Amino acid sequence: MTISFKNANMKKQTYVRVCKKMNKKRIKLVQQALSLLKQAKSILEDVFDGESEALSNRPENFSGTDSYQQSEEALSNLEDINDDLEQVIDNLENL
To answer: Residue 7 falls within a domain, yes or no?
Structure first.
């Protein structure tokens, strides 16, 4: 069975079945992946904070520009990614 991270809403029961079938080596790999995902989430949160601060420090006359809208869209995408990563992390921690 393959764990698909595209579907972060995978049921907990499926994860439990996966864990029961894994040997110690594969469980360790999952733990390493979990650690890397947490690091990635932390990095992306730092990027979000920096972009958010940069956006809030722009003069008001930039609020309607393409650049401003692209920054807003990037922030929205980063929030979505953060939510998805949080769900994946939670699912892995519940293995």
So the answer is: no
| Residue with tokens 């393959």, as numbered in its chain | 2
At residue 7, what are phi and psi to the nearest 5 degrees? Answer: -110, 85
**Tens digits of per-residue pLDDT, 7-59?**
545 545 555 556 666 788 988 999 999 999 999 999 999 999 999 999 999 98
Dihedral pair phi/psi, residue 70, rounded to 5°: -65, -40
Q: Is residue 1 part of a domain?
A: no
Higher confidence at residue 11 or residue 66?
A: 66
- Judging by beta carbons within 10 Å of its beta carbon (0-12, 13-18, 19+), is residue 3 exposed, middle or buried? middle
